[in-house]
């Protein structure tokens, strides 16, 4: 079955979606400076089990800019995820990674009945938004010309590879990185959206939503990396403890982008999680 594409109107602009596979709905939310192609290594292993919906949210790796006055905050991005989810066949399994994990947390806290289950990969959470290593980004993004200069530098293969080393232990081919970062190196509208998102990253958002995660009563799988420069290892259990029904598995050979580093392992963990019927409350 060929992948399908669509464009969906959401608050502030149009979002491009890609669909693959058949079965229950799985909505996958990518992270900062990439797009839905970060999930490509999972498609072959999941397409016979799930209808995978992979939006290109306006987080920097997208190709279609939002309207000039659009809200690019994490809360607004969560609103777009909710709008997309409402167009999909229930039940919806939500999967979030990196910045997309923070967005997913906001979405399930805001609309807990809309989603059936949640898978959280290494993500911004608590006081780690943006991750401490990237803490200067919101301030630098406020300096005129900085976002454009950083974006333009991504035309260089060396810069692309250096960026990926921060989030993936795998050797990602340069053409694949180019696909992942979308129009960011050359599109001023995408750069505008990216800059607004960066300026809105702040730990007060993720600290606040952590207090509301108990509202989501569905089952949660927290998938975390043991050695990751961006997301503290102790956040795995701490995040799981925010939900009534949760479990934790550890990716031993990944950085933040587990879908790139251990795709076969991640496919197995997600499939087990969906297939496993709880015998009681678990955490």
Descriptive key words:
283 residues; Rossmann fold; 8-stranded mixed β-sheet; 8 strands; globular
Present the secondary structure layout.
Elements: E1 4-10, E2 13-20, E3 25-29, H1 40-46, E4 51-56, H2 74-86, E5 92-98, H3 99-110, E6 117-123, H4 137-140, H5 146-153, H6 157-167, H7 174-180, H8 188-200, H9 203-210, E7 219-225, H10 235-240, E8 246-251, H11 258-261, H12 263-275
Parallel strand pairs: 3-4, 3-5, 5-6, 6-7, 7-8
Antiparallel strand pairs: 1-2, 2-4
- How is the main sheet built? 8 strands, mixed
Order of SSEs: EEEHEHEHEHHHHHHEHEHH
CATH homologous superfamily identity: Alpha/Beta hydrolase fold, catalytic domain
Total discrete domains = 1
Structural class: alpha/beta
Q: Helical amount among residues, as a percent range?
A: 25-40%
In spatial order, strands of the major sheet run 1-2-4-3-5-6-7-8
- Could you list the spans in which at least 5 consecutive residues all have pLDDT below 50? none
Q: Please state the overall shape, judged from the principal axes of the Cα atoms.
A: globular
Q: Report the CATH architecture.
A: 3-Layer(aba) Sandwich
- CATH C-level category: Alpha Beta
Q: State the assembly state of the protein chains.
A: single chain
**N-to-C CA distance:** 37 Å
Rg measurement, Å: 17 Å
Strand runs, count: 8
What's the total helix number?
12
Tell me the strand percentage band. 15-25%
């Amino acid at each position: 079955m060929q992948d399908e594409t669509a464009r969906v109107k959401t608050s502030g602009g149009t979002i491009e979606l890609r669909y693959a596979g058949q079965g229950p709905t799985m909505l996958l939310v990518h992270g900062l400076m990439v797009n839905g192609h970060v999930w490509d290594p999972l498609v072959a292993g999941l397409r016979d089990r799930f209808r995978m919906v992979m939006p290109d949210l306006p987080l920097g790796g997208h190709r279609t800019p939002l309207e000039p006055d659009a809200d690019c905050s994490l809360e607004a991005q969560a609103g777009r995820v909710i709008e997309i989810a409402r167009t999909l066949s229930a039940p919806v399994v939500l999967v979030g990674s990196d910045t997309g994990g923070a967005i997913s947390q906001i979405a399930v806290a805001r609309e807990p009945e809309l989603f059936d289950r949640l898978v959280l990969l290494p993500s911004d959470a608590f006081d780690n938004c943006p991750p401490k290593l990237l803490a200067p980004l919101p301030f630098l993004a406020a300096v005129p010309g900085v976002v454009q200069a950083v974006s333009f530098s991504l035309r260089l293969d060396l810069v692309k590879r250096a960026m990926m080393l921060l989030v993936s232990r795998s050797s990602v081919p340069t053409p694949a990185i180019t696909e992942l970062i979308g129009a960011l190196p050359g599109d001023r509208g995408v750069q505008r959206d990216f800059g607004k998102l960066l300026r809105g990253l702040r730990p007060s958002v993720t600290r606040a939503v952590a207090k509301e995660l108990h509202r989501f009563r569905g089952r949660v799988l927290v998938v975390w990396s043991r050695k990751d420069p961006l997301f503290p290892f102790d956040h795995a259990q701490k995040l799981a403890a925010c939900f009534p029904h949760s479990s934790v598995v550890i990716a031993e050979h990944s950085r933040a982008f587990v879908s790139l580093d251990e795709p076969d392992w991640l496919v197995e963990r997600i499939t087990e999680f969906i297939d496993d019927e709880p015998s009681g409350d678990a955490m």
